[in-house]
């Protein structure tokens, strides 16, 4: 009996440590290559015509999500953003409109990435080590530190969802910012992928009207 309980404790402890390791894993920081090109992110990362298969992102519960765009049977729209990205905040209504209008045949996800304008550390979109405080954030009273762990990223994303009443799906980029690095290192880019996994449209900056034109042509 003692052996049984000792084994049960070992399994429980291993599970607990595993969960904590995932949520407490430190998030890497990187500076976007776009700042070396006058904030032009169009040539970085994925491009139109490329084929994308499986993506690993994380749910709002912190669980790994294997997103296979080729088996979804429909197109996928991925849009990046963060709590301190003033561009994303200004585009949330447009993203919501597209999700409401096309959700029956297109999977729309907001992918939460690095904070664009963290309170006391360097922005990933600036070569300067000093913090870059966006004027719109100051006016709106928006401020947050760059999350250091996946759990902190999840908590800040949850705060963002509640404050902005975001009703469409939000997924989290991983601790190594895999999606951000692969897709294009931009704060508010949009990528439309066909049901075959081919990139139909990539926007370095989200633009609703152009996206809708492409969505209207998407099966």
Task: Report, as a whole number of angstroms, the end-to-end distance.
Answer: 61 Å
Cα-atom radius of gyration: 19 Å
Major beta sheet, strand line-up: 5-4-3-6-7
The secondary structure category is: alpha/beta
The major β-sheet equals: 5 strands, mixed
Contiguous helical run count: 6
Shape: globular
SSE arrangement, N to C: HEEEHEHHEHEEH
Number of strands: 7
Mean pLDDT: 90
Residue windows where pLDDT falls under 50 for at least 5 positions: 1-21
Helix share of residues?
25-40%
Task: Report the portion of residues in β strands.
Answer: 15-25%
Features of this protein?
five-stranded mixed β-sheet, 6 helices, 7 strands
Condensed summary:
The protein has 219 residues and is of the alpha/beta class.
Question: Describe it for me?
Answer:
- The protein is of the alpha/beta class and 219 residues long.
- The chain is 35% helix and 16% strand.
- It contains 6 helices and 7 strands, in the order αβββαβααβαββα.
- The chain is globular, with a radius of gyration of 19 Å.
- The chain starts with a helix and ends with a helix.
What's the SSE blueprint?
Elements: H1 2-24, E1 54-58, E2 64-68, E3 75-81, H2 86-102, E4 106-112, H3 135-140, H4 150-164, E5 170-172, H5 178-183, E6 190-193, E7 199-203, H6 208-216
Parallel strand pairs: 3-4, 4-5
Antiparallel strand pairs: 1-2, 3-6, 6-7
């Amino acid at each position: 009996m003692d052996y049984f309980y000792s084994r049960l404790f070992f399994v429980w402890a291993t599970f607990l440590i595993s969960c904590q390791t995932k949520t407490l894993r430190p998030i890497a920081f990187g500076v976007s290559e776009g700042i070396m090109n006058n904030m032009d992110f169009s040539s970085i990362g994925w491009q139109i015509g490329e084929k994308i298969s499986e993506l690993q992102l994380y749910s709002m519960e912190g669980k790994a999500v294997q997103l296979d765009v080729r088996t979804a049977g429909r197109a996928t729209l991925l849009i990046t953003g963060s709590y301190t990205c003033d561009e994303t905040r200004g585009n949330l209504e447009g993203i919501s409109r597209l999700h409401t209008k096309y959700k029956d045949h297109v999977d729309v996800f907001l992918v939460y990435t690095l904070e664009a304008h963290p309170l006391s550390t360097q922005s990933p979109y600036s070569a300067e080590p000093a913090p870059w405080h966006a004027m719109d954030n100051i006016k709106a009273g928006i401020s947050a530190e760059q999350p250091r762990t996946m759990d902190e990223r999840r908590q800040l994303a949850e705060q963002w969802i509640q404050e902005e009443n975001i009703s469409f799906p939000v997924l989290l980029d991983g601790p190594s910012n895999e999606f951000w690095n692969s897709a294009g290192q931009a704060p508010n880019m949009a990528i439309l992928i066909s049901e075959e996994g081919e990139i139909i449209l990539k926007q370095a900056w989200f633009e609703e009207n152009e996206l809708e034109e492409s969505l209207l042509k998407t099966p």
